[in-house]
Amino acid sequence: MRFSHDTELTLRAACVLVNSNRVDGERLGDLAALDAYLDGFGWTGRRDRDAAELESVHRLRDRLAEIWAVAADEEQVVAKVNALLSDTRAAPWLTRHPEMPEWHLHLASVDDPLWQRMGAEMAMALADLIRAGELRRLKTCAAADCDAVLIDFSRNRSGKFCDTGNCANRQHVAAYRERRAHAKQ
């Protein structure tokens, strides 16, 4: 399943946001880290650059984590996504930027608070996933020692491991060592 560029980018941004406190402690603990995250995903519009803004993004992160936590229950996900769309007062409009000349949707005014813009766009990207019947692409890492989330964009939805902690490589090495140990017995 192919999604639009802005939908994929926003889903990746949501995944990174959720994981920002799941692997190696808090990685979004100050305004510099928030700015780096926002710049990395090309977020535009108003930035207050204060503690209240950072806290509101942390609250959004918690709400998104709740969506991943119930990903197996479509009705619960829909209720949470609808609540987020409502709370952010999402109002779609088409736009484009010099660095991204293709038309894409923004779902809040550039003057709205950061969490509201982010939440509206992330909720709409999740809505696209739901409408496409692809909710099963929201996953939690299969590594026993990792609780990071992932969005599986593989063709056959076979992704199991996050890309935050080298989990796939660690699991493959462990399986290899176990096979070798059994072969020597």
From TrEMBL:
Q: What is this protein called?
A: Uncharacterized protein
Q: Known SUPFAM superfamilies for this protein?
A: Jann2411-like (SSF160904)
Q: Which Pfam families match?
A: ABATE, zf-CGNR
Organism encoding this protein: Mycolicibacterium hassiacum (strain DSM 44199 / CIP 105218 / JCM 12690 / 3849) (Mycobacterium hassiacum)
> Which Gene3D superfamilies has this protein been placed in?
Jann2411-like domain
What InterPro entries does this protein map onto?
ABATE, ABATE_dom_sf, Znf_CGNR
